[in-house]
Amino acid sequence: MKKEDLVEIVRYLGAEDLKFLDSLRRKRWILGIIFNIAGLGVMVGAVLYANMAGSQGWMWFLFGLFIGSLLMREGGVAIQESRSIAVPGGGRYKVFVKLICSNPDCGYMEIRERKDGEYVGQVLDATCPKCGSKLVVSAIFSEPEKKIKTIGMPILPTTGQMTLLKLFGYYLLDVFTPFKMAFRLVKRGFKREKEEH
After folding, report:
1. pLDDT of 103-139, one tens digit each?
2. CB 78: neighbour CB atoms within 10 A?
3. By the 8 A CB rule, do 93 and 145 touch?
4. Is 173 helix (H, G, I), strand (E, B) or coil?
5. 0.70 exceeded by pTM
6. Per DSSP, which regions of 15-144 are E strands?
């Protein structure tokens, strides 16, 4: 079996994962566009409301700019992440073999790149550097040349497909978690002040 055949088999076996990554890339891109449009809408709405509200309009203007910029930042992050989600190794895999010593008492093991014509169970002419017995090919596997960089969320589905709504929920939790922490700190500060007085 040639190296190219093994790479095709690996691609075939990983087809579902590749479909999922492509789907996740599209969902991230759509979510980024939605966040950018929502952020722009909030900013424009804040400007319009500030003009109509009069003296207290500046407060809503600042609040709208803050929330709008947060939404647009998250949209930019989602679009950037959609560009960085790629096929592992850009579709390029290296094929390796696991060699073990034919002497079961020795325990020697070695991993190296596969040479053409090697197959599982093949006894090689090479000898074990530890005991001098023959080496046997015990496994053939492949790994991507470049690992996937994690993006903070599950890369592969666990108990069902990742929907756009779930993705939106993750982003909302991510956006508003710092606010929750800030509110808790402020609340604790108010409690301490009340206890001191």
Report:
1. 888 888 889 888 888 888 888 888 888 888 899 998 8
2. 22
3. yes
4. helix
5. no
6. 93-101, 109-113, 123-127, 134-144
